[in-house]
Batch of 4 targets.
Target 1
Amino acid sequence: MSVIKGARERARNEVTAAIKQEASKQLAAEGAARLSLRAVARELGMVSSALYRYFPSRDELLTALIIDAYDAIGAAAEQALAGTDEEPPADRWVAVCRAVGAWAVAHPHEYALIYGSPVPGYTAPDDTVGPASRAAFALITIVRDAHRDGLLQPPPGRPLAAPVRADAARLAAEIAPELPIPTIAAIVAVWAQLFGVISFEVFGQFNRMIDARREFLDQAAAGLALQVGLGAAESPAEATPEDTIAATPAPDGVLRSK
């Protein structure tokens, strides 16, 4: 009996994987808003009623794809974090940010599904919260370790406004009560900035502006580490005379470097 049950489970897992694979193709071709269970069933040679036994609605299929994407980017972050215990906190931070960015570039459609425009009419269920937190908690682990080891500095900047402090205090109680409240606020701010930089690359906003994309992300991530209070990375870029640009007006009035 257990052999038959195991065979059925394997068969179901195979069909589920095929459905999600075809849905991912449609996601790339049409976008999340146009994902259709009927179209997926048609491409797989299934009748719609059979597919509904696996995913009763488009939203459930969309949720499965979202969870897979969050788990994948979270696994990339956790893999980058593993084995970095002996490295300085800022270097650990850059390594995780680099891994997250690399995953996004390699999986632009999945990235757009979780960090792009919301899908009209779709509300993510609580099932997505855990997977969505994995990448963030890889970075929070670095901050916690730095705090434990006495290496965490107060984040720079102005004191928190009362409403911001209240939000940060609530978040601190939920995710890292041992961390200072200003640090929690800084983590949220740099989290948004990190994905701003990544989104610029994934969605082509750096075209004709930044060519050294990986190096630029490393530089930005090191700056974000400073904002959290992790200190400078051990291997900063070597300064060159071009690091200081004296701008002077050209005859045509355009500012140019000397």
Note: The chain has ten helices and two strands.
Target 2
Amino acid sequence: MEPILSHLSFQIKENAIDSFMDEIKTPVTDPVFFSVGLPNKKLIPKKQLQAMTNMLFENDPSNLYNYCSSKGYDPFISTISAKETIAENFIMVTNGNTQGFDLVCRMLLNQKDSFAMEAYTYSIAHSAIHQYNLNAIEIPLQQDGMDMDVLEASIKKVPIKALYIIPNAQNPTGITISLEKEKIN
């Protein structure tokens, strides 16, 4: 019988965090379980989430059952656009970092393309290196974010097509990028 899975599917490698998540059986008791970014269920604002869900069902019930645009739910995108003063055409809502990272890899990067990422970083970046056959350039972190001198030197050596950073409460270090580094072009 012919295999039904694609060649790409055989390149996917499970990382240690994925394996760990499959094994975890006990509820998280710490405020946030930083090794995998799993919140304590007691910290989730259940009543507020329920109220927002109820409001959506009351205010726009017909649209809740339809497909939205591929960029996400339009009222949500409009809210983000207004609050963050970013044009709507620059906003795409995903189910989280993993889906967003995967979409960027599929849409912007070709095999052997280089991208820079923080050392250390969220495990999905390491999975993508193997899955999409990419060249990852690891940039060390400092107390206030990525080491910009190393990044600049790396860009001069290798054409970097994308930069992957977690600017706020970086996982796994917890570092937040400084305003000074955030403003560097």
Note: The chain has a mean pLDDT of 82.
Target 3
Amino acid sequence: MKAILCEQFGDPDLLELREVPDPIVAENQILIEVNACGVNFPDLLMVQNKYQFKPDLPFSPGGEVAGKVLALGKNVTNFRIGDSVLALCRWGGFAEKVAVDSDRVFLLPESLNPKSAATMLYTLSTSYHALKDRAELKAGESILVLGAAGGVGLAAVELAKMMGAKVLAGASTPEKLQLCKDRGADLLINYEEEDLKSRIKELTNGKGVDVVFDPVGGNYTDSAIRGMAWKGRYLIVGFSNGKFPKYR
């Protein structure tokens, strides 16, 4: 089969398309023919050897796939060959086939196409867990989403709106902010051109936001925290700008 391989750690342009052997299916695994694979920020970190999971070289990136079941390990009884599935494979998805532990595979509804399905689990599950389980976001509350035009950011915008919150979307360009508005954001902040803390206070009539959803980190963190309301909740989702914030 063909696979996109990381043979040396570095930038994505070092990845190579290679012919490799088909995966060997273990007794608790499912072999999937990959129809679509999501591309996420963890993939970029992984090929640079900066992620918490560190596969041995060479490996194929790609952590979430959608496709068809080709073969079943001897202990797998809850799937059938030919089933349409969605899977969290951690890595290995940038290939024609991937073997995945059966407890990380889910049946795909007919109403959901593979391309959409393969971009859902990382972003939506991360944002849902953050908003629902950690922040306990409630209807009527306000939330600032930083990096709101990114994968988890857009998911957070959409989910927060569904939960009844007032959504302030922060992004770095007018085009990104327009995308956030199209996805349901109530208010927009261009944090490259506007003072983040002052703009938060202005848009919330001096109260501040109840929740901050931050996948960016770096210099924006301090301003966002200072723009929170009393008893506000700050969600650390990631550090996509590569800088760990310093709290002071």
Note: The mean pLDDT is 93.
Target 4
Amino acid sequence: MALPDAGAPDAGASGALVGVLGGVGPLATVLFMERVVRLTDAARDQDHVDMMVLQHATVPDRTEFVLGRSADDPGPVLAADARRLAGAGVGFLVLPCNTAHAFAGAIAAATSVPLLSAVDATVSAVLSRDAWTGRLSGARPEAVGLLATEGTIASGVYLDAFNAHGVKTLVPDVADQATVTALIYDGVKAGRGGDLTALAGVVANLRSRGAGAIVLGCTELSVAAEATPPGLLPDVVLVDSLDELARATVLRSGRRLRAEVAVG
């Protein structure tokens, strides 16, 4: 059975085939797909988003390259994957890995098929009046706390994006970042699991410095959030990059969002 032909990339076309640059990391990609399904207003199989997923887990480590600890460049690998998906007729690309957005330029240079940015979707959620009067709560923050890999922070993808809109980005200190990194790499990526309990102190420190919201800027942290006991951070506004990319994907593919549901 042939996959639907999206034709020339018309990202706004109804039923556009989504190309998922996956495997970075593998479990986060699976969770992204689940979120897309759960967030889609669908009454039957045929109402859901068509996705072609390339689960390329052996893409070189993004953070190691960004920090100069490895010469193994993920950029050409991600670019080649983008070309493979483009050749299959996808209408647009998504990348459920925040650190990999440091290589968005390489992807853009490889194909004319557009990349729907998880960073832009997340920043838009923080800036959205509708989000803060509906799905989120309180006034739009003047500063956000960023929980992410060292690579994402060093790349500046979030800092630059938020700064362009006058929102300050606060990042953990060295000790707190080590805690975040351990949850991402020694917990989720290593297959040992974990939840956001370990980051309660990190979040408290960011809030004490003025963070009005906390951005989960790593999709492994989205996996950890899925396992977090309800009520752990009852007064903290969490903006989850994986959730926001999933919502944006549903809309960009020409589908409708289901009435707000609990997804994490």
Note: Residues 162 and 202 are 20 Å apart (CA to CA).
